Amino acid sequence: MLEEPRIFKDEQVLNPEYLPEFLPHREHQIERIAKNLFPASRGRPVQNMFIIGPPGIGKTVSVRFVFRQFEEFSERIKTIYINTWNYNTSVAVLAKIVLDLGLFVQRRGLSKDEIMERLIEALKKCNKGLIICLDEVDQLVKKDENALYDLLRLNQYVDNPIGLVMISNYPDIFVNIEPRIKSSLNIEELEFKPYTIQEMKDILTERCKYAFRPGSLEEGVILLCANHAINKGGDVRIGLECLRKAAKICEEENSDKIKTEYVKRILKETGPVKLKIMHGQLGGVEKNIVELLSKEEPITSTDLHEKYVKIFGDISQFALTKHVKHLEDIGIVRVKESRRETRGRKWFISLIKRKVFK
Ligand SMILES: Nc1ncnc2c1ncn2[C@@H]1O[C@H](COP(=O)(O)OP(=O)(O)OP(=O)(O)O)[C@@H](O)[C@H]1O
Ligand SMILES: [Mg+2]
After folding, report:
1. Is the separation of the CB atoms in 164 and 184 below 8 Å?
2. Index of the ligand 1 atom closest to the CA of residue 168
3. Does residue 173 sit in the same domain as residue 149?
4. Which backbone phi and psi does 144 adopt, to 5 degrees?
5. Looking at residue 34, what DSSP letter applies?
6. Which of 191, 218, 236 is the endpoint of a domain?
7. How many Å apart are CA 187 and CA 174, to the nearest integer?
8. For residues 246 and 266, is the Cβ–Cβ distance under 8 A?
9. What is the C-alpha separation between 147 and 301, in angstroms, rounded?
10. What is the 279 CA–ligand 2 centroid distance (Å)?
11. Out of 74-83, 105-114, 133-142, which region has the weakest mean confidence (pLDDT)?
């Protein structure tokens, strides 16, 4: 017979995707976001936003929180969340919006103008303010900055207010974009600052209240997890993972309390998660490059190209370099110039923090 789970009330609450009912220490940011976007529900123009800050400090969850609020309480706003890791061209983004607005659209075979027409048709029909979150927007800016322009120019064709909330870890991504796009973006920047240890503790305490039955945690467990998350860069996901892993040991040992000793056992193996997530999102050529580099010492660009072609098939050196440059930009690989070479320049490419990818 299966035993009743003893410590958990709702294990899901510790899942990083879970959207809590309350987000401690992000009240001001949530209010700011809501204030800027809310005019959409009155048919008035929206203040576009650019949210920046390091990984795991509540940027995405705060926007999702506001979106949930809007969807629940306002009939006149439609919110659409897009992670541009997965939708990194204008066509992909526009097609996703059309689909989310409830119209069918084929992504392949249709030109951008055709999809744009479908979108305008969809917007005219729904007569709601549209708020689009472009998360990890650096991906889109790098791959296809015109996507932003296409979204911004929608305003010329429809009366619906259209607002953009963009999120990134990198503050400088708009520095080099085309002036016509920059000037029409008109963004308000909102910086999220890392949590202090006390704030991290409050956040984990709040999650634990809904995840575990009362009395399931030994004194000091949350502080240990919070402290570890702060030491490893401040990502709340690390704290949540510590709690999940400690809870697992607790179950294995058939104990009815999570002890600090369990947490101490798993601290070493619990570290930064963002790179792992990013790696999971890579596709095609970039995934192959990372796989190849994970088996190599630093390698020259020529050797990398040669090996790549041998293992994965033909690609031009130029195209490969572009992908390597992108991986460098997002902090996955390092490209270093060799000082020893006297004739010509040589570039050595290697993975950053290789062990994260295991
Ligand atoms: N104030 C908070 N209250 C409750 N949970 C939080 C809070 N801040 C962050 N979290 C949780 O931490 C995890 C990471 O948050 P989120 O995904 O918003 O990070 P992020 O800032 O978008 O990071 P990244 O830049 O890596 O995308 C999520 O599980 C989220 O629910
Ligand atoms: Mg995020």
Report:
1. no
2. 25
3. yes
4. -160, 75
5. H
6. 191
7. 10
8. yes
9. 31
10. 14
11. 105-114
Q: How far is CA 201 from the centre of its chain?
A: 23
Domain total in the chain: 3
Query: Strands 77-83 and 48-52, how do they pair?
Result: unpaired
Q: How many CB atoms lie within 10 A of CB 357?
A: 17
Amino acid (one-letter) located at 325: K
Q: Same domain for 38 and 163?
A: yes
* CB-defined site of ligand 1, < 6 Å: 16, 20, 23-26, 53, 55-61, 169, 203, 236-237, 274
Q: In the prediction, which pLDDT does 133 show? A: 98
Q: Collect all residues with Cβ–Cβ distance below 8 Å to 292 and sequence separation of at least 6.
A: 304, 307, 308, 311, 312
| CA 64 – ligand 2 centroid, Å | 10
Q: Tell me, what's the pLDDT at 61?
A: 98
Asked whether 296 and 256 are in contact (CB, 8 A), the reply is no
Cα 136 to ligand 2 centroid, rounded to whole Å? 7
Higher pLDDT, 39 or 105: 39
* Nearest alpha carbon, ligand 1 atom 3: 23
Spatial contact of 290 and 332, defined as CB atoms under 8 Å apart: yes
Q: Would you state the structure tokens that stand for residue 240, as one six-digit string?
A: 């949540």
E strand or H helix at 50: strand 48-52
Q: Which ligand is nearest to the CA of 203?
A: 1
Give, for ligand 1, the residue of 237, 244, 275 to mutate: max count of ligand atoms closer than 8 Å to Cβ.
Answer: 237
Q: How much is the average pLDDT of 249-274?
A: 91
The parent domain of residue 64 ranges over 27-191
Q: Could you tell me if residue 18 is inside a domain? A: no
Check which CATH number belongs to the domain holding 239 and give it. Answer: 1.10.8.60
